[in-house]
Specification:
The structure is a single chain. By secondary structure, the protein is an alpha/beta fold. It is 51% helix and 13% strand. The chain has 10 helices and 6 strands.
């Protein structure tokens, strides 16, 4: 696939370029600041953009805000945030349109190349990938919200795994549950969050959004 990278650390940026190139992908642009990220996406229309949260000039949240601006122009543009930090407000906002094709991974928790490559494929394909620590912090922000109390502890556990992008079969393996049990939990979650059956493929993403943004 064709990929844009926005990362200000030279060694990490070059490392990503090498990894992606060696695994058959094409890096069409590698930039070190937020304005150049927006320009590169507009110019190249990549299959995926990998973006750090904190970029020049301010090193605060410029990368994530640039990613939001990109998604504002084209809500289905695939974005994978790869950062050392969890920016909770903007992370929830990145998910807020419900279109999928987003991910948020923490650099120091990416320890297996095949898992990282799987994550970029899933995001580029329209899926959602969330690091468990990102999910934990986002959920913790909302633990006092009344909507959370509608879900049982097991349902919250299942929904956290859904937010990480796990399939039903992967959730079964993670929680040692039979497929019918996982299907029942997900049905209960969707019902409690008032997400009736629909034709689109993003009900699971919308369930996560409903949970994070109450």
């Amino acid at each position: 696939m064709r990929i844009v990278i926005a990362e200000d650390l030279l060694l990490l940026r070059d490392g990503l370029i090498r990894i992606l190139t060696d695994t058959g992908h094409t890096v069409v642009a590698a930039v070190d600041n937020a304005p150049d990220l927006e320009s590169a996406v507009q110019e190249h229309r990549p299959d995926l953009s990998i973006v750090d949260v904190r970029l020049p000039p301010g090193f605060r949240d410029e990368g994530l805000r640039a990613a939001l601006a990109v998604r504002g122009r084209d809500p289905k543009t695939p974005i994978l945030i790869l950062s050392q930090y969890v920016e909770r407000t903007y992370a929830a906002e990145l998910l807020a349109d419900g279109n999928g094709a987003v991910g948020y991974l923490l650099k120091d928790r990416v320890t297996a190349l095949d898992e990282f490559l799987d994550a970029i494929e899933r995001v580029a394909g329209g899926g959602t990938v969330m690091d468990p620590e990102v999910v934990r912090q986002l959920f913790a922000r909302n633990n006092r919200d009344r909507g959370v109390t509608a879900l049982t502890p097991r349902e919250r556990e299942v929904l956290a795994l859904v937010a990480q992008g796990l399939s039903n079969s992967a959730i079964c393996a993670e929680l040692v549950l039979a497929p019918p049990s996982v299907e029942k939990h997900i049905t209960n979650i969707l019902t409690k969050l008032d997400l009736p059956p629909a034709d689109d493929t993003h009900r699971r993403v919308r369930a996560v959004l409903a949970y994070l943004n109450q």
